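Proteins fold reproducibly. Next comes a concrete instance:

***
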Amino acid sequence: MTVARTGPAFSLADIPFSTYGSWFDVSPVVAEKTYADDLHLVSHQNGMHAVLRLVPLSAGERAETDRQGTPGLLTWTGEAGRVELAYESPDTVRLRGSGLDIGVFAAARALTPFSGTYFFHDPAADAHVFTSYETGRRYRVTLLSGAIAATPGDQTLGSTDRGLAVTASAGGGWEIAIEELDTARPPYVSSTAFDDVVEAARSAFADFVDAVAPWRSAATPAAELAAYVVWSATVRPAGLVTRPGVLMSKHWMDKVWSWDHCFNALALASGCPELGLDQFQLPFDHQDASGALPDSVTHSEVLHNFVKPPIHGWAFGHLRRRLPTPPGRAELAEVYERLERWTQFWLTARRAPGAQLPYYQHGNDSGWDNATTFDPERVVVTADLAAFLVLQMHELAAIARELGKEDEARRWTLTAEETQATLLDQLWTGDRFVARGVATGDTWSTSSLLDLMPVVLGEHLPAEVGSTLADHIKAHLTPYGLATELTTSPHYLADGYWRGPIWAPATVLIEDGLRRAGHHRLADDISARFRTLCETHGFAENFDAVTGTGLRDRAYTWTAASYLLLAEAHAHRDGR
């Protein structure tokens, strides 16, 4: 007898229910930090928009239910019965119920000429349709069994309740399909039984987790849930998303930022290499004429008002080593050209006249938006930026050698060595790195973990510099990991974004740099604390450094990806 692989159960308040490739989810989270009483169908086309409210009903009234998600099935369970929802495909969900009815209503009551959701019965498809101004899409509800009990707001304008209530036929249950579509398609026809839809969804996820985490065991108890967070946040190409893309979340952080994507790429590389490479390349598809990457990409928006730090050389070096088959020459040449342009952007557009080191224009450029490093000034030369570029130039040299470009390889190696020498000469005091204001020339050090990020240079660092940085990093350790601001600092804030909370990317970058610099025991400790944090508190955007509580967006893919990376490395070191 084959036992169904249901996958991990999760709270819908923390993690939205969705599937690989879909642009919508089902969740009570309807906007930033906004939780509704009912689950909603929430689309991420043209932004995050709650479109439909899904309400279990008993005798026409809202029924109190317990809700639970697993990778293949969402359930509402009440005293009178049960409602179930499963994805048949990325744009279609099936719902069925027994003992409880269902109401499918527009999330917003107001309908204006420019906003809201219009509702009507479409005779050609014999289905009820909601059209959303916000997403620019239609949501079609087809009755498969049971009966329509009511259709309030059919063709009604202005402000009113809109939707339909579905009830069971005598002695039976009910079933419906909800599709997200553009303009029109043939009427929906059910060709697969509901239980088979559930099993197909479960199997698709099980295959994914087997691919990305074949090493998992009882010692890595959060691996399957981490894989679900990544799998369910993946969307098919649409709009400005040029490839299958892993959003940072299907909550309100529903974008691909141009450094977050690197961690997802690395976690996917060994088990889903094509998807991993797509994650790395996606922001580069929007590289501008100056060579800069966008700040972020989503369905209908590419932002260029900031950039993100150039960790891409570091990331691609690791990515290449994780791929089961090395990139072909054509792909390697494309990455080389893109990385070269990205590096030249920093060496031209972001160096003051006569200066040797580049600068950030704002904390947002660093990815550490409000870190205390940027308190004295915003346009700042920082050590982390120079360190990332050194690693990127070493990777360019390595790729150039593989492509037979020996002169370019020598040039990149020399530039990397010169940049590191300048970094140590201008920003290293003998005890710590300082930042320097471009306008004033003033220098300062802070209690931010950002000041210690040059440890990413790893084996390239002089031993005494690496050891000093390691000692400073130890001071940032709490029982849960690395606080981004010393907890003893007057600027420390428990929920202060980069002024205290623990973050996944800083953890992975520092752990890797320490390990490459030979500080294995400290790297092991940092990895263990972060893995325990995720296993206890989930995959939040960031975490309270003192209590471990998850903060902000609670289903963040780079956190899940970072757990997978650290857990896999630990499993291999442990001999599993």
